Amino acid sequence: MSADEQLARLAEDVGLLSEFKDMQGVVHVATPETQRALIEAEGLTARSAAQVAEARAALLNEKRCMALPRDTVVCAGQPASLNVKVPLEWTLLSENEEDILASGQADERLDLPSLSSGVYPLHLKTAKGIQEATVLAAPKRTPQLNEVGRAEKNWGVMAALYGVHSSANQSFGSYKDLAALAEVVGREGAGFLGLNPVHALGWAAGDVISPYSPTHRGFLNADHIAPMDGTTDSSQIDGALIDYKKHRQWQRPCLEAEFEAFVAAKGSSDNSGFVSFCAGAGLPLDEFARFEALSMRLGSDCRTWHQDAPSAAVPANELAFHKWLQWRADEQLAEAQTKAKASGMPLGLYLDLAVGARLGGAESWGPHSAAAENVSLGAPPDHLSPAGQMWQLAPLSSRKLKSSRYQALRFVLARTMRHCSILRIDHALGLNRSFWIPENGIPGGYMRQPFESLTAVIAIEAERAGTVIIGEDLGLVPKGFREAMAAKGFYGYSVLQYEKDPMGNFLKPEKIRAQSLACFGTHDTPTLAGFWQGKDIAWWRKLGWIDDKTAAQATDRRASEKRDLAGIPAPASLPGLATAGVRDTIHAKLAATPAAMVAVQLDDVLGVEEAQNLPGTTDAHPNWRRRAPRSVPELTQHQTLKKTAQLMAKTGRAPKA
Questions:
Q1: How far from 498 is each of 31, 58, 147, 565, 589, CA to CA, in Å?
Q2: Is the pLDDT of residue 383 over 80?
Q3: Which of 195, 200, 272, 412 has its CA 20 to 30 A from that of 221?
Q4: Are strands 154-159 and 597-601 parallel, antiparallel or unpaired?
């Protein structure tokens, strides 16, 4: 076997797809440079032919010697019988490894007892030594809407938390503003309130503002904490765009003063809640606080830190401050969920799990990180971004996840599900395969992921939290992926703008998937008003992604799409703007679909024209900076919101008492 063949085989062994087809049907073959880079991203050395041969031999030997696969997924609540390759002694431990649940000997079959949902270490002793495997006892499916939300169908409102504002806060949306907004939409009959990710961006994040570029997904964004002193931030009252720097300059001194007061009153009853929170978050919180404190000295990207940084001394009060921030954020988010449900929402908050944490952030730092090395998540060219995307997010290494029994992922999931009844998993295709791009500019490729194990882990955590799971399944979807996800209880994501038949025509409402959340658009697509005016086409042309001819063709095609969506046949003229009638027609179509959940964008209710984000851009488009044109108090009597609620109620989507 030649050196190139050995390299290709090793790349296949670690999960690299040898080729993929983009949305234009062009086949991209993984080059040797891509193979080498993605092999090394998984922690193997492949710089020479000898290293490639050695790494492949080690993998093959490991596979031959393992009496069982490293991961075994079984059905929770049912005994299971596993085939073993060689005679062995086995011991099954509890999740915390403190108790022996079962043990025995096996020649050909290893019989496991019925297990409650969880992730269990399985120790194996063979003639060749000690091995360790993982048993993932998963429920047959994730929680369903009728189990959590008391109804087969529901609807809700989607909002960008950073853009929410009130009379007490005219700058940047806080968790208290979230609670107030939840009460407003809950009283109108919404079953849930969805929002962008609220993961931690980091105290030293600097110019980072994207909610999809967190430093750690298991912790919360401190920018959304509402100070307790009741002061009003009116620094941006006249601005349509949010100035994050001004917000932080006002908010952070308030929080620092609060922490000082908290420390001074250390003997108060408030301290018990803080101590309990820290104990519950455990070692990951310790490591996160340490990262945050070090980042204030060394910068927010740990890839630039000196080698001795992990052992550097950090004052105890600095560690306590960053833990305290997380406690404050957690308390306020919990209160928002409590008020959401008290308002009549059966589901309350719908949170969003970002596809990854940013490169050099807290989630990819420390001995317990499961991040792959020197690569970024991204996407090849598609309908969201013709130029393709490099997200600057760290993928999780399959090898590291398996060797740690998925602890890093389980922590992120459990912490995110604490205060929500619906969790949307961004870019759920990554559970099957994810697009990795080397940081050195070499072309990327698709890496296979342990789909059965990952979905089992999600189902385990979702059952414990009582959380409905939505898998955002847009883009280049592998054949059978949506069906496999649905069989495991996941809800799909049906975006009306993209729901078309093979001829390019929009699907009739009754053809939308029942086991899905249906919506007109997302944070990455044009709003209803922007779609009508072709704002996305104009931006693509402005940025040079398409030429004049292509833009003209897209505009002509958009006119046909508008007629189809709004039910305006030719030769009747199309209104220049998305009228109330157009909006209500489209929302009524959504309401009439079989989809279990329907989401209406607050931006569409308020007639906003510009999108929250334009994929593939950072500064060229004002991403993540648009304030809502109406405050929370102004929404209490907003007629469009009331009309939308009425449309939803007519189709049986009103929540049941």
A1: 32, 45, 29, 12, 15
A2: no
A3: 272
A4: parallel
Q: In this structure, what token pair is assigned to residue 479?
A: 């054949």
Query: What gap in Å lies between CA 478 and CA 470, rounded to an integer?
Result: 17
Cβ–Cβ under 8 Å, residues 177 and 165: yes
| DSSP three-state, residue 11 | helix
Six-digit token pair at 503?
């001829």
Q: Where are the alpha helices (DSSP H) in 299-396?
A: 316-342
- 55-66 pLDDT, tens digit per residue, is 999 999 888 889
Could you give the count of Cα atoms lying within 13 Å of 312 in the half-sphere of its Cβ? 17
- pLDDT greater than 90 at residue 269: no
pLDDT confidence of 234, banded at 50, 70, 90?
low
Task: From 416, 526, 513, 430, select the one nearest 469 (Cα to Cα).
Answer: 416
CA distances in angstroms from 382 to 23, 24, 26, 340, 502, listed in the order given: 6, 8, 12, 37, 17
What are the φ/ψ torsions at residue 40 (nearest 5 degrees)? -70, -25
Quick one: how far is CA 567 from the chain centroid? Answer: 35
Label residue 125 exposed, middle or buried (CB < 10 Å: 0-12, 13-18, 19+).
middle
Residue type, 266: K
Tell me which H or E stretch contains 390.
Answer: strand 389-394
Q: Which residue has the tokens 């018990």?
A: 272
Distance of CA 299 to the CA centre of its chain: 25
Spatial CB neighbours of 329, under 8 Å, sequence gap ≥ 6: 175, 219, 220, 221, 222, 224, 225
Task: Tally Cβ neighbours within 10 Å of residue 244.
Answer: 21
Q: In whole angstroms, give the CA distance from residue 293 to residue 274.
A: 19
Q: Does the CA dihedral 243-248-249-251 come out positive or negative?
A: positive
Instruction: Spell out where 10-128 has E strands.
Output: 19-21, 27-29, 71-75, 80-83, 88-93, 100-106, 109-112, 118-126
Q: What is the pTM of this model?
A: 0.94
**Whole-angstrom distance, CA of residue 34 vs CA of residue 10:** 12
The answer to whether 43 and 370 are in contact (CB under 8 A) is no
Strands 154-159 and 192-195, how do they pair?
A: parallel
Looking up tokens 């179509």, which residue turns up?
589
Quick check: 350 and 195 in contact, CB under 8 A? yes
Task: Count CB neighbours of 361 within 10 A.
Answer: 31
At residue 154, φ and ψ (nearest 5 deg) are -155, 170
Tokens of 285: 């919180």
Average the pLDDT over 188-201 and give the result: 97
